[in-house]
Amino acid sequence: MTPVVVPAIIADVKKVEVVVAHHQCATLRVGDVFLKIDADQTRTDVEVEAMARAPIPTPEILWRKPPVLALAALPGKALGRLGEPSAASPAAWAAAGAAVRKLHDAPLPPWPGRTAGEIAPGLDRECEWLVANDVLPAGLVTRNRQVAEAALRPWTPVFTHGDLQISHVFADGDQITGVIDWSEASRGDALHDLAILTLGHEGHLADVVAGYGTGVDLDVIRAWWSLRSLMAIRWLVEHGFDPFLPGCEVDVLRSQM
């Protein structure tokens, strides 16, 4: 096997931080460089192409040597994390909404995304699994499946990030400095992006909407909160994450009751 030659830009750094790691991919931080290692290079292809097309700030690509993609760290810090209060200002949240609007107004990427009809069977499978394995009470799952139905309607596709968690949006003061993790970018539902950005942070939804502008159906936002949480729990459990932590996916589902 040919060894990977580490560029001099990170060769002298001694500390390696594991940002996230599971059997599909891993992200390491080495100084001011993030190394994304992905077994599926099609996801990396999408990420690179999406960042090139996005009209909002994204990390600088330093180099790519499959299966590794090296990205420069963004200035500032993430808006927050799921399950923790956000220290970002209302103005920063509004700026995030404005950045998302700019993305959604951009030309569509050439590759498609999933339709409501393609999402629904997977949602039903996850709901059945949650109940059959006694992960969640049947009433909680049934109620959130009903709420989620509002998201499964036809939508006009826009350029979506696809996984716009608050930990993927960086700000310095009240200014957005960039958005990371574009491997799920596609043509999709604009309200899905807004829902993922505000998942578990309902108190900042008004700020985001103020920055985003018109065309926001709050019932559909809430529907996506339920849908995302129902579909994420099995994956999170199987990959060593805890959706039962305060403020995380299970609490989001309970809040919908």
UniProtKB/TrEMBL annotation:
Keywords: Transferase. SUPFAM superfamilies: Protein kinase-like (PK-like). One of its GO terms (molecular function) is transferase activity. InterPro entries: AGP_Transferase, Aminoglycoside_PTrfase, Kinase-like_dom_sf. Residues 50-215 form the Aminoglycoside phosphotransferase domain. Pfam families: APH. This is Phosphotransferase enzyme family protein. It comes from Nonomuraea solani. The lineage of its organism: Bacteria, Bacillati, Actinomycetota, Actinomycetes, Streptosporangiales.
